[in-house]
Amino acid sequence: MKDEQILAYFDGRGTVEITLRGREVAQGDRIAAIAFELGYTLHGREVITRGQWRMIYLRDDSPDVRQRAQHTGDRLRAGGPLFPQTRPPVGMPPVPGRQIAPMEAASARQNMTAYETHGSRGLVIIASFLGIAFLLLAWVVREALGGAIALLVAAALMGVVAILTPRWMRNWYEYNRQKVTRFNQQRSQQWGPPPPPAPPPPVRGDGRDSPGRSGS
Fold first, then answer.
1. What is the pTM of this model?
2. Predicted confidence (pLDDT) at residue 214 exceeds the cutoff of 60
C-alpha cells in the first residue's frame, strides 16, 4: 500500500477502517504513524486470519491534535515531507536521548495501548497453565526419572515466569512510554507546545449591566 493510498483514508472522516492482507500487515506501524500525523487514534485491531488484519481508527478532535493535523496538512500541501523533521531549530539544545523515528513511536504507542487494554493477566494465565500441565506430565512419566525431572524444571520456570511477568510488563510499558514522551518532546521543538484550551464563554447576565444600560 502506497503512502497516497494510506493518506486517502484519513481525509477527515470520523471513523477509518483499513483491512490489511498478506504483506500489507507489515505496514501497520507506518499506517499508525501517518494516522497520528493526521489526528487519528487507533481504536481497535482485529486479527481476522493470520494474514488479514482490520485496523479501526477514530478522529481525535482535541485542540492540540487538530493543530498537529493542520500542520501536517499545510506541510503536505506545500510539498513538504510526510513526517516532520525532529531536529531542533538552530540555537535550541536537542532533547536528551537518541532521536525516535515516527514508526518507532507509532509502534510504542500501540504497545502501550495493548498493555492498557489487556494488562499482563493473559500472559500470567498462560504461564500458570503451562506450569500446571508440566507438573501433570511429570506425574504421568514419574517412572522415567530423567523426563520427570526435566518436566519439573520446566514447571518451575513457568512458575517464575508467571510471578515475574507483571513486573516485566510494567517495565516494558514504561520503556515504551519514555519513547513516546521523547518523540513528542523532539517533535514539539518544531511546533512549540500545544495551544491552551479556549476560555469558557461569558456568562449571559440579565442585561442590567450590558452596554447601553444606565443601571438605574
1. 0.69
2. no
